[in-house]
Amino acid sequence: MDAVTPNPDDLLEQASQGDAQAREQLLVLHRERLRRMIAIRIDRRMAARVDPSDVVQDALAEAHRQLTDYLRERPLPFYPWLRQLAWNRLVELHRKHVLAQCRSVTREERLVLPEESVLVLVDRLVASGSSPSQRVVREEMRQRVQQALANLSERDREVLILRHLEQLPMAEIAAILGISEGAVKVRHLRALSRLQVRLAEPDENVTR
Protein backbone atom coordinates (compact mmCIF):
# COMPACT_ATOMS: atom_id res chain seq x y z
CA MET A 1 0.00 0.00 0.00
CA ASP A 2 1.34 3.42 -0.97
CA ALA A 3 2.39 5.70 1.87
CA VAL A 4 0.12 8.68 2.43
CA THR A 5 1.84 12.02 1.81
CA PRO A 6 1.81 14.05 5.03
CA ASN A 7 -0.25 17.22 5.04
CA PRO A 8 2.19 20.19 5.00
CA ASP A 9 -0.05 22.29 7.28
CA ASP A 10 -0.20 19.46 9.81
CA LEU A 11 3.57 19.08 9.68
CA LEU A 12 4.06 22.82 10.22
CA GLU A 13 1.83 22.73 13.27
CA GLN A 14 3.56 19.65 14.68
CA ALA A 15 7.01 21.12 13.98
CA SER A 16 6.08 24.37 15.71
CA GLN A 17 5.21 22.30 18.78
CA GLY A 18 8.70 20.78 18.83
CA ASP A 19 8.09 17.54 16.89
CA ALA A 20 11.58 16.70 15.53
CA GLN A 21 10.26 14.11 13.08
CA ALA A 22 7.79 16.62 11.62
CA ARG A 23 10.64 19.11 11.15
CA GLU A 24 12.60 16.56 9.12
CA GLN A 25 9.54 15.54 7.10
CA LEU A 26 8.83 19.16 6.21
CA LEU A 27 12.24 19.49 4.60
CA VAL A 28 12.18 16.15 2.80
CA LEU A 29 8.66 16.77 1.49
CA HIS A 30 9.81 19.53 -0.88
CA ARG A 31 13.18 18.10 -1.93
CA GLU A 32 12.09 17.08 -5.43
CA ARG A 33 10.31 20.39 -6.10
CA LEU A 34 13.49 22.25 -5.21
CA ARG A 35 15.63 19.98 -7.36
CA ARG A 36 13.37 20.60 -10.38
CA MET A 37 13.54 24.35 -9.81
CA ILE A 38 17.33 24.32 -9.68
CA ALA A 39 17.58 22.10 -12.77
CA ILE A 40 15.35 24.55 -14.66
CA ARG A 41 17.27 27.64 -13.56
CA ILE A 42 20.93 26.60 -13.36
CA ASP A 43 23.30 28.34 -15.77
CA ARG A 44 24.68 25.79 -18.21
CA ARG A 45 28.15 27.28 -17.81
CA MET A 46 28.32 25.80 -14.33
CA ALA A 47 26.05 22.78 -14.77
CA ALA A 48 29.05 20.48 -15.29
CA ARG A 49 30.53 21.53 -11.94
CA VAL A 50 27.40 21.96 -9.82
CA ASP A 51 24.81 19.23 -9.33
CA PRO A 52 21.25 20.43 -8.62
CA SER A 53 20.96 17.85 -5.84
CA ASP A 54 23.97 19.39 -4.07
CA VAL A 55 22.39 22.86 -4.27
CA VAL A 56 19.21 21.44 -2.77
CA GLN A 57 21.15 19.71 0.00
CA ASP A 58 22.90 22.99 0.88
CA ALA A 59 19.55 24.81 0.92
CA LEU A 60 17.94 22.17 3.14
CA ALA A 61 20.87 22.33 5.54
CA GLU A 62 20.41 26.10 5.77
CA ALA A 63 16.67 25.64 6.22
CA HIS A 64 17.32 23.24 9.09
CA ARG A 65 19.47 25.90 10.79
CA GLN A 66 16.82 28.60 10.31
CA LEU A 67 13.71 26.49 10.86
CA THR A 68 13.11 27.47 14.47
CA ASP A 69 13.09 31.17 13.56
CA TYR A 70 10.88 30.48 10.54
CA LEU A 71 8.33 28.57 12.60
CA ARG A 72 8.17 31.43 15.07
CA GLU A 73 7.83 34.25 12.50
CA ARG A 74 6.53 32.54 9.29
CA PRO A 75 7.40 35.46 6.97
CA LEU A 76 6.33 33.42 3.91
CA PRO A 77 4.42 30.22 3.16
CA PHE A 78 6.78 27.31 3.69
CA TYR A 79 7.68 26.31 0.13
CA PRO A 80 8.33 29.91 -1.10
CA TRP A 81 10.57 30.38 1.95
CA LEU A 82 12.43 27.15 1.23
CA ARG A 83 12.69 28.03 -2.47
CA GLN A 84 14.20 31.41 -1.57
CA LEU A 85 17.00 29.68 0.35
CA ALA A 86 17.68 27.44 -2.65
CA TRP A 87 17.59 30.45 -4.97
CA ASN A 88 20.07 32.34 -2.75
CA ARG A 89 22.43 29.38 -2.86
CA LEU A 90 22.12 29.17 -6.65
CA VAL A 91 22.91 32.89 -6.99
CA GLU A 92 25.93 32.45 -4.71
CA LEU A 93 27.24 29.60 -6.86
CA HIS A 94 26.56 31.62 -10.02
CA ARG A 95 28.77 34.40 -8.68
CA LYS A 96 31.50 31.92 -7.79
CA HIS A 97 31.54 29.79 -10.94
CA VAL A 98 30.36 32.20 -13.65
CA LEU A 99 30.86 35.83 -12.69
CA ALA A 100 34.29 35.21 -11.18
CA GLN A 101 35.41 33.90 -14.58
CA CYS A 102 34.04 36.92 -16.50
CA ARG A 103 36.60 39.70 -16.10
CA SER A 104 34.59 42.00 -18.35
CA VAL A 105 31.61 41.99 -15.99
CA THR A 106 31.26 45.45 -14.43
CA ARG A 107 27.99 44.90 -12.58
CA GLU A 108 26.16 41.92 -11.13
CA GLU A 109 24.72 39.71 -13.85
CA ARG A 110 21.23 38.37 -13.24
CA LEU A 111 20.54 34.69 -13.61
CA VAL A 112 19.14 34.15 -17.10
CA LEU A 113 16.86 31.24 -17.90
CA PRO A 114 18.89 28.66 -19.87
CA GLU A 115 17.98 28.15 -23.52
CA GLU A 116 16.83 24.58 -22.90
CA SER A 117 14.38 25.78 -20.25
CA VAL A 118 13.14 28.56 -22.53
CA LEU A 119 12.32 25.94 -25.15
CA VAL A 120 10.46 23.82 -22.58
CA LEU A 121 8.44 26.87 -21.58
CA VAL A 122 7.70 27.65 -25.22
CA ASP A 123 6.53 24.07 -25.81
CA ARG A 124 4.17 24.32 -22.84
CA LEU A 125 2.69 27.50 -24.27
CA VAL A 126 2.27 26.09 -27.78
CA ALA A 127 -0.18 23.33 -28.73
CA SER A 128 1.53 20.19 -30.00
CA GLY A 129 0.96 18.68 -33.42
CA SER A 130 1.83 15.33 -34.96
CA SER A 131 1.38 15.65 -38.73
CA PRO A 132 4.18 17.20 -40.86
CA SER A 133 2.09 20.30 -41.57
CA GLN A 134 1.20 20.62 -37.88
CA ARG A 135 4.87 20.33 -36.93
CA VAL A 136 5.81 23.13 -39.32
CA VAL A 137 3.11 25.36 -37.87
CA ARG A 138 4.20 24.42 -34.35
CA GLU A 139 7.83 25.34 -35.08
CA GLU A 140 6.72 28.72 -36.41
CA MET A 141 4.63 29.20 -33.28
CA ARG A 142 7.60 28.30 -31.10
CA GLN A 143 9.68 30.99 -32.76
CA ARG A 144 6.92 33.56 -32.34
CA VAL A 145 6.40 32.69 -28.68
CA GLN A 146 10.13 32.83 -28.00
CA GLN A 147 10.33 36.29 -29.57
CA ALA A 148 7.26 37.45 -27.67
CA LEU A 149 8.67 36.19 -24.35
CA ALA A 150 11.80 38.23 -24.93
CA ASN A 151 9.66 41.35 -25.38
CA LEU A 152 7.68 40.94 -22.16
CA SER A 153 8.59 42.85 -19.02
CA GLU A 154 10.83 40.89 -16.66
CA ARG A 155 8.05 40.56 -14.06
CA ASP A 156 5.45 39.33 -16.57
CA ARG A 157 7.92 36.85 -18.02
CA GLU A 158 8.74 35.59 -14.52
CA VAL A 159 5.05 34.98 -13.81
CA LEU A 160 4.88 32.74 -16.89
CA ILE A 161 8.06 30.92 -15.86
CA LEU A 162 6.79 30.29 -12.34
CA ARG A 163 3.35 29.23 -13.51
CA HIS A 164 4.12 27.15 -16.61
CA LEU A 165 7.71 26.00 -16.06
CA GLU A 166 7.97 25.60 -12.30
CA GLN A 167 4.21 24.91 -12.30
CA LEU A 168 3.50 26.71 -9.04
CA PRO A 169 0.03 27.68 -7.78
CA MET A 170 -0.92 31.36 -7.88
CA ALA A 171 -0.66 31.75 -4.10
CA GLU A 172 2.98 30.59 -4.05
CA ILE A 173 3.85 32.80 -7.02
CA ALA A 174 2.37 35.76 -5.17
CA ALA A 175 4.50 34.99 -2.09
CA ILE A 176 7.66 34.60 -4.17
CA LEU A 177 7.14 37.87 -6.08
CA GLY A 178 5.87 39.80 -3.06
CA ILE A 179 2.62 40.88 -4.72
CA SER A 180 -1.01 39.95 -4.19
CA GLU A 181 -2.53 36.84 -5.69
CA GLY A 182 -4.91 39.09 -7.62
CA ALA A 183 -1.95 40.96 -9.12
CA VAL A 184 -0.38 37.66 -10.15
CA LYS A 185 -3.58 36.65 -11.95
CA VAL A 186 -3.72 40.01 -13.75
CA ARG A 187 -0.09 39.77 -14.84
CA HIS A 188 -0.55 36.17 -15.95
CA LEU A 189 -3.60 36.99 -18.08
CA ARG A 190 -1.89 40.07 -19.49
CA ALA A 191 1.23 38.12 -20.45
CA LEU A 192 -0.82 35.39 -22.11
CA SER A 193 -2.87 38.04 -23.95
CA ARG A 194 0.29 39.66 -25.26
CA LEU A 195 1.55 36.31 -26.45
CA GLN A 196 -1.74 35.66 -28.24
CA VAL A 197 -1.58 39.06 -29.96
CA ARG A 198 1.98 38.30 -31.06
CA LEU A 199 0.95 34.92 -32.45
CA ALA A 200 -1.88 36.51 -34.43
CA GLU A 201 0.44 38.97 -36.17
CA PRO A 202 2.12 38.15 -39.50
CA ASP A 203 5.85 37.85 -39.00
CA GLU A 204 8.22 38.04 -41.92
CA ASN A 205 11.17 37.20 -39.69
CA VAL A 206 9.88 33.70 -38.88
CA THR A 207 11.72 31.07 -40.90
CA ARG A 208 9.48 29.18 -43.29
What descriptive keywords fit this protein?
208 residues, 69% helix, mainly alpha, Arc Repressor Mutant, subunit A, globular, Rna Polymerase Sigma Factor, Chain: A, single chain
Give the helix/strand layout.
Blueprint: H1 8-16, H2 20-29, H3 31-41, H4 52-73, H5 78-97, H6 115-125, H7 132-151, H8 154-165, H9 170-177, H10 181-200
Helix pairs in contact: 1-2, 2-4, 3-4, 4-5, 5-9, 6-7, 6-8, 7-10, 8-10, 9-10
Question: Can you offer a commentary on this structure?
Answer:
This protein has two domains: 8-101, Rna Polymerase Sigma Factor, Chain: A (Orthogonal Bundle); 115-200, Arc Repressor Mutant, subunit A (Orthogonal Bundle), CATH 1.10.10. Helix content is 69%, strand content 0%. It has helices spanning 8-16, 20-29, 31-41, 52-73, 78-97, 115-125, 132-151, 154-165, 170-177, 181-200. It is globular and about 60 Å long. The termini are far apart.
Per CATH, what is the topology of the largest domain?
Answer: Rna Polymerase Sigma Factor, Chain: A
Q: How much of the polypeptide forms β-strand, as a percent range? A: under 5%
- Spatial gap, N to C terminus: 53 Å
Number of domains: 2
Radius of gyration: 20 Å
Q: Quickly give the structural class.
A: mainly alpha
CATH architecture of the largest domain: Orthogonal Bundle
Arithmetic mean of pLDDT: 84
Fraction of residues in H or I helices = 55-70%
> Quick one: biggest sheet?
none
CATH superfamily of the largest domain: RNA polymerase sigma factor, region 2, helix turn helix motif
CATH class of the largest domain: Mainly Alpha
Q: Quick one: how many beta strands?
A: 0
Low-confidence stretches: 104-108
- Number of helical elements: 10
**Which word captures the global form?**
globular
